[in-house]
Amino acid sequence: MQRDAPQVFDGTGNLLSFLDRITVWTALKGFEGEKKALALASRLEGAAFENYRRLDSEEKQDFDVIVVSLKKELLGGAIDRRLAVDELRDRKWKQFEEPRAPAAFAHDIDRLVRLAYPGFDSGSAITLARDAFLDGLPREFQILLRRDKTTNVKVVKELAEEVNQLRLAGISSVRPAPANASPVNQSSLPASAVNQTVTAFGDSLDTHATVGKEARPAQTIHPGEVAVTYFTHACVEMNFNGTILFTDPWLTGPAFSKGWWLLHEPPSDWLDRLSNADMIYISHIHPDHLSYPTLKLLHKRKPHIPIYVGNTSTPPFSKQHCYGKETYNVIVCELGEWQQVSNDLRFMIMHDGNHIEMDTCLLVDYKGHLIMNTVDCSRPNDNILPNGVDLLMSDFAGGATGYPVSFYGGSYTEKWKDNFIKSERAKEINRKVAMAKKVNPSMYLPFAGYFVEAYPFDEYVREKNKKNSPAQVIDRLNKYAPDVRTWNPKPGAWLDLATFTVTDPPEGTPVFKTKWNFEPYIKHIDKNISFAPFQHPDCLSFYFEWVGLKSTNLVVRVIETDEAFAKSEIGHDILIDFLDLCFPKERPTRKHDYLEIKARIGVFRQTLKFGYLWDNLFIGFQCKISRDPDIYHFNFWNHMQLLLSSTPPDWTKFWLEKGGRVEELSGPDYMLPDLS
Predict the structure, then answer these.
(1) Superfamily of the domain at 226-503
(2) What does residue 380 show for φ and ψ, rounded to 5 degrees?
(3) What's the per-residue H, E or C state across 424-457?
(4) What gap in Å lies between CA 514 and CA 548, rounded to an integer?
(5) Which residue of 201, 335, 432, 624 is most buried, as measured by CB atoms within 10 A?
(6) What is the pLDDT of residues 581-634, one digit of tens each?
(7) Where are the beta strands (DSSP E) in 497-536?
(8) Within 10 A of 416 (CB to CB), how many other CB atoms are there?
(9) 597 with 623: CB under 8 angstroms?
(10) DSSP one-letter string for 21-80
C-alpha cells in the first residue's frame, strides 16, 4: 500500500481529494493529535499555508480545526469568489448617483478584490484594486487622474492620510473647488471632484498609516468630569460634564424575534436615566442595537430626543413601519464628518469596511480625549483608526449568527460544529487583541456580546453556541498588550475617564438576568399563524414573487415547522426555483444548488406578513438549514437580509383576489405587542 506523502497543496487544486489522501496517509503512519496536525501542515504551501499560518498556536495543533479553516476559506467561499470576479469585471461608478458615490464605489471595489482574490499579498491587491477602480471611472476621470499621475500607490496613500487628518480636525476637503467648476460630462473636471475620487480610493485601502494621535491637544479633565457607565450589551451612558450620550439602548424585551435575550440585568432606573439623555447613537439596524421595545417606552417619556445614525444604504429605521406608528427624531449623519455638540464635545460616525451598507462605529472627542466604540464592525473605518485613544469599546463574544449551530446534514456533525465554533472564538479574540494593539487605548472595555438564547425551546442553541467570556479576551490582552488597562463590566459600573478608576454598583446589585418576560412576545408572534391569507395554498408563492429574486440557479425548499422544527400539521411545504422564479412540485433535473430551510411557523409568518428582513430567522436561530453543495449562497442571503422592498407585501390585495373579505383580515398591526 502506498505510504508516500501526498503532493503538497497550494490552495488551487481539489481540496476534498487532498484531504482524503492526507487522512489515509496519516492513518497509515499512525499519526495522531499534534503530530497529525503537523503532518497536514507540512503538505501545505501558497494560499493554503497562509491560511494555516493565520491560526494561533493552539489551533495549529488541532487537525480538525485546520481542516475547518481550509474548507471555510478555500472551498466554502469558492462560489463567492467566482461571483466577485464577475462583479468586479462589470462594476462601474454611476457618477453623481449620490453624494458619497465615489467613496461607496471605492469601498465596493476594495471589498470585491478581497473576496475575489483572498490569496493575494497586500501589494498585489492594492495594484489590482487601483486598476479596477480606474477602469470603472468615467473616461474623463481616467484621463485626468493618469495625466496628473495621482494613481501611484504612494501618492494615494499619502493623500488619504492627509485627508483623514483634516477630517478629524473638522475640515471637509483638501482644497476648494474652483468657482467655475464644470459638470463631469465636460472635458475638464472640478478639482474638488478629482480630490473626492482620489480620496475615496485612498480611503478604501487598509494598508496606509493610521490616523495620527489626537486631532487636537488633550486638555486636562478633572475627576468626575467624564463618566462612562455600562448598562448592558452595547449600551453605555457617556456623561460629559452634564451632556449625556447613550449608545445602542437595548434594555428590555428580546432581539431577533425570540432568539436573543439580555444576559445582564440593566440598572433598575434605566428608563429614567435614558429619558434624561441629550442624544442617542444607534449603530445599525439589528435589533440588539435598534431595540424598538426600548424605544417605544422611551418615546412615551421623551418623544423628541435626537437619535443619531450614519448615512448607510440600509439605515437603522428603514423598517420602522413594522414596529409601530411612533415618529422618532432621527438625525442622519454623513459618515466620517464631525458633529459638533459644543466647543468641548464632538463625535464622528464612521463606516465598517466589510459591511459598508449597514454597520457603523463611533468616535467621540471631549477636550481632545477620545472614546472609540467599534460596536460590531469587523473593519471599522477600514482600519484607519486613531492611535492612543482613552477608551476602546468593542464586541468580543462571537456566536452572533445561525452558522453553524442552525445547520444540519452533511459534514455538520456535533464534533464539527464544536471545532468550528472553537476556532472562530479564538480568531475573534485575536482580532480584538490586534485592534487594541493598533489603537493603543489607555482602557479597553469588551461589550456588545452579552446576550443569551434564553427561550426554553432554544436549549440546544444555548448549549452549542458557546461564546467568549470577557475574562478570556482580557487575559489575552493582558498577555500581549500589558500596558492597556481592562474593564470587565457589571451593569451600573462606571469609569472615571480622568483617573481610569472603575466604581462597581452597590453590593447585591444583580448582574445576570434570571427571568425573562417571554409570554407577551410569544403570544403576539403566534397570532400571525392564523392570519387569513396564510391559510391559502398560494400564499408562499405570492410572497416569493414579492421578494423578486430570480436568475439565480438555486432551488429552496421551505418547510413550516413547530417549535422543535418538526413539520407543522398546518404549515406549508414549498419549492422555489429562483432561476426563473417558479414553484415546481419536485426538484428540477438540471444541476442546481439546493437549500432546505425549516422555519418556525410563527416567526416565519410574522416575517412574511410585514415583509421583514430574514435576520430574525437566521441570526435569531428560528430556522434550520441544510445545503447541497455546502456553499454560502450570497445572492440569496444578501437579498433576504438586506435588499427586500421597504413596502411590505399587499396581503389585502392578495386575499381579495382569492375571494376573501376584508373583515377576515384580523391580526397584529405591528411586530411588537403593546405593553403599555
Answers:
(1) Ribonuclease Z/Hydroxyacylglutathione hydrolase-like (3.60.15.10)
(2) -60, 125
(3) HHHHHHHHHHHHHHHHCCCEEEECCCCEECCCHH
(4) 43
(5) 201
(6) 999 999 999 999 999 999 999 999 999 999 999 999 999 999 999 999 999 898
(7) 501-503
(8) 17
(9) yes
(10) HHHHHHHHHT--HHHHHHHHHHTB-HHHHHHHHTS-TTGGG-HHHHHHHHIIIIITTHHH
What tens digit of pLDDT does each residue of 628-671 get? Answer: 999 989 889 999 998 999 899 999 999 999 999 999 998 899 99
d(CA 168, CA 363): 10
| Enclosing H/E stretch for 496 | strand 494-496
Tell me the C-alpha distance between 224 and 471, whole Å: 27
Query: What residues have CB less than 8 Å from 99, skipping those under 6 apart?
Result: 334
Rounded Cα distance, 18 and 23, in Å? 9
> What gap in Å lies between CA 137 and CA 22, rounded to an integer?
47
Say how far apart CA 322 and CA 520 lie, in whole Å: 17
| Residues 451 and 516 sit within 8 Å (Cβ to Cβ) | no
Inter-residue long-range contacts of 412-416, CB under 8 Å, 24+ positions, other chains counted? 414/464, 415/64, 416/64, 416/68
Which of 341, 350, 348 has the alpha carbon at shortest distance from 312? Answer: 350
Q: Which strands sit side by side in the sheet containing 338-340, from one edge to the other?
A: 338-340, 345-351, 360-366, 369-373, 391-394, 443-446, 485-486
CA dihedral 166, 172, 175, 179 (to 10 degrees): -170
**Distances in Å between the alpha carbon of 429 and those of 64, 118, 482?**
20, 21, 15
**Torsion angle of the four alpha carbons 542, 543, 546, 552, in this order, in degrees rounded to the nearest 10:** -100
- Bridge partners, residue 626, by sequence: 596
* Residue pointed to by grid coordinates 493610521: 210
* CA gap 109, 204 in Å, rounded: 8
Architecture of domain 524-664: 2-Layer Sandwich (3.30)
Q: d(Cα 221, Cα 225) in Å, to the nearest integer?
A: 6
The reported pLDDT for the residue numbered 19 is: 87
CA distance 98 to 88: 20
Contact at 8 Å (CB) between 364 and 333?
Answer: no
| Residue reference for cell 413547530 | 562
Contact 633/403 with Cβ under 8 angstroms? no
Distance CA 401, CA 467 (A): 11
Q: pTM to 2 decimals? A: 0.73
Q: Report the SS3 class of residue 306.
A: coil
Q: What is the DSSP string of 529-566?
A: GG-GGGGSTTHHHHHHHHH---S--EEEEEEEE-TTSP
Q: How far apart are the first and last CA of the chain?
A: 75
Would the pLDDT of 175 be above 50? no
3-state secondary structure of 244: strand
Domain extent listing, the chain: 15-75, 79-174+189-203, 226-503, 524-664
> Residue 185 phi/psi, 5° resolution?
-80, 5
**Cα–Cα distance, 110 to 353 (Å, whole number):** 9
- Give how far the C-alpha of residue 658 lies from the chain's centroid of Cα atoms, to the nearest Å: 40
